[in-house]
Amino acid sequence: xxxxxxxxxxxxxxxxxxxxxxxxxxxxxxxxxxxxxxxxxxxxxxxxxxxxxxxxxxxxxxxxxxxxxxxxxxxxxxxxxxxxxxxxxxxxxxxxxxxxxxxxxxxxxxxxxxxxxxxxxxxxxxxxxxxxxxxxxxxxxxxxxxxxxxxxxxxxxxxxxxxxxxxxxxxxxxxxxxxxxxxxxxxxxxxxxxxxxxxxxxxxxxxxxxxxxxxxxxxxxxxxxxxxxxxxxxxxxxxxxxxxxxxxxxxxxxxxxxxxxxxxxxxxxxxxxxxxxxxxxxxxxxxxxxxxxxxxxxxxxxxxxxxxxxxxxxxxxxxxxxxxxxxxxxxxxxxxxxxxxxxxxxxxxxxxxxxxxxxxxxxxxxxxxxxxxxxxxxxxxx
Length: 382
What we know:
Blueprint: E1 5-8, E2 14-17, H1 24-36, E3 47-48, H2 58-68, H3 74-95, H4 113-116, E4 120-125, E5 141-149, H5 156-164, E6 173-176, H6 178-181, E7 185-186, H7 194-215, E8 219-223, H8 225-229, H9 234-245, E9 251-256, E10 285-289, H10 300-306, E11 310-316, H11 326-337, E12 345-349, H12 358-380
Parallel strand pairs: 3-12, 5-7, 6-8, 8-9, 9-10, 10-11, 11-12
Antiparallel strand pairs: 1-2, 4-5
Helix pairs in contact: 3-12, 5-7, 7-9, 11-12
């Protein structure tokens, strides 16, 4: 793996980042680590997990700004990104999670922002609004100027290869879905509408997912908040999703939320229009957020469980700086268990934690794990 990567910023700046070269020793260590983390073994009852992104500490925010300004050399950048991933992994391990991610620490910007810099055929546009309270209309936008492609991939394999050598815990690899990625791009003469853009993204993403499996990934989570934002065509969305993961031999998760930029949703927060269509999706696990909505629509958990899938229930409110107690988490878990067998329930936050301060993220994850242990002990007797 010896790719040249470039990251386009909303300002139009392009920052080259180095790519790690993996030698034979790296490969042997990774192979041993993958055996330890195999998802084929029986998972613990009430598995605990995350969505993907993790909080940025102050030193990393400062470093990213310096990188954007050209103050870091390639080795400075590589060391900084490695340290950030190590920090995210350590915090998740110390919290006691069963399944972790690399924190998406190598992805600059909010959620999808980093991926557009890996594409050819796009032109950056200014945000719709640059002043006033933070909101989704201040995010990055792009115009298509030719058929777009990702000649060097989306970077997910590089993310996994490093993180896999830094932990013995099972790793999930999150990836934005095609319809969500299409949302920041203005269609034009090349692609007539958002769905046409999404279909092209589907091809690019599927290629990346197949490369992930080849690299040893066993759990891939597709993030599609736009399904719950634009509820008008759920059947079309499911077909698009299934086309994207076709032939991808890994455990597949689908994360559905209502947006989390600066902790702000961007949709009428109801999953109802997606049912029963969402049950046609080719995914082993479906994640819904419940905590920040006071457990509203938890009844849909029963439909997911009845379909034979695992429900990943969002039981930590990442939009709230109130730190849940373990007892509160335990009470939420018991509520979900009225609808889902314990063997089919994964306990997780509502969304990623990139918009949460690190001190709060650490405390919330610890409370989530401790609350889960309370209920696990009630069910097992120890």
